[in-house]
Write a structure and sequence with these properties.
The chain is built from 10 helices and 7 strands. A 7-stranded mixed β-sheet has the order 3-2-1-4-5-7-6, with helices on both faces. The longest helix has 24 residues. The protein starts with a helix and ends with a helix.
Length: 230
């Protein structure tokens, strides 16, 4: 099986030997790949919708892994029992939904040893939620796929220092490790924002002035992040 750059990067953050629960499994690619690579012994593939779950079941059968991957219809981790899994992957959904799943699944998630999260939006909100709720980000990765940048993180239970605005936006580990993909992303953001500010300055409307203040504030954060990585 050939995984996309994003799914491969997410899979690489899963610790070898764990029992996996894949939330929002869609086609079931992550658990299938991890088992075929000999990385994990078994998995539970879960999705809130029957259609994706049926696709996952078809793929699991096609790879002959019915005895190693169980499928469950589940809203978040509601169908997961305490102690059933060591690792939970939540990838490919908005940050608000990720937070909702973590909140509603608090009790069962206390019994897992790690989370692998790949929010598609509001990642600063997700990082701040993790800090407030007693989680610690141990590592992060970022990949470029079809013109989009995807950050992701490995998380365990435990305290971490309060995140600065820059760390919440761009990732404490990505900044610390001077991640090359993050550098490319910041370069692109700076170019786009500088071009946008030029256009806004030429407009005399109040709406443009208000927008200009927002963009200049965001641009300053991009520059601070780049300085932190220099």
């Amino acid at each position: 099986m050939q995984l996309s750059n994003r799914l491969l990067a997410v899979s690489e953050l899963v610790t070898d030997g764990v029992r996996l629960a894949d939330v929002g499994t869609d086609h079931g690619y992550i658990p299938i790949w991890l088992i075929e690579q000999g990385r994990i012994p078994k998995a539970i593939a879960m999705d809130i919708n029957r259609g994706p779950l049926m696709r996952a079941q078809e793929n699991i059968r096609a790879h002959g892994l019915e005895d190693k991957i169980e499928t469950r219809l589940s809203d978040g981790v509601t169908a997961l029992c305490p102690g059933e899994s060591d690792s939970v992957v939540i990838a490919g959904m908005g940050g608000g939904l990720v937070i909702k799943i973590l909140k509603e699944g608090e009790e069962v998630l206390k019994t897992v040893s790690e989370l692998v999260l790949q929010p598609q939006s509001d990642i600063d909100r997700v990082r701040r939620f993790l800090w407030k709720e007693g989680y610690r980000i141990t590592s992060e990765h970022m990949v470029l796929e079809e013109g989009k940048y995807y950050p992701m993180m490995h998380v365990v239970h435990g305290e971490m220092e309060e995140l600065s605005d820059i760390e919440a936006l761009y990732g404490p580990c990505l900044l610390r490790d001077r991640n090359e993909c993050l550098k490319l992303y910041l370069d692109r953001e700076q170019r786009n924002m500088e071009k946008l500010t030029e256009g806004l300055r030429m407009s005399g409307t109040q709406k443009a002035k208000d927008r200009l203040a927002e963009v200049e504030s965001a641009l300053e954060k991009v520059k601070q992040a780049k300085e932190k990585m220099a």
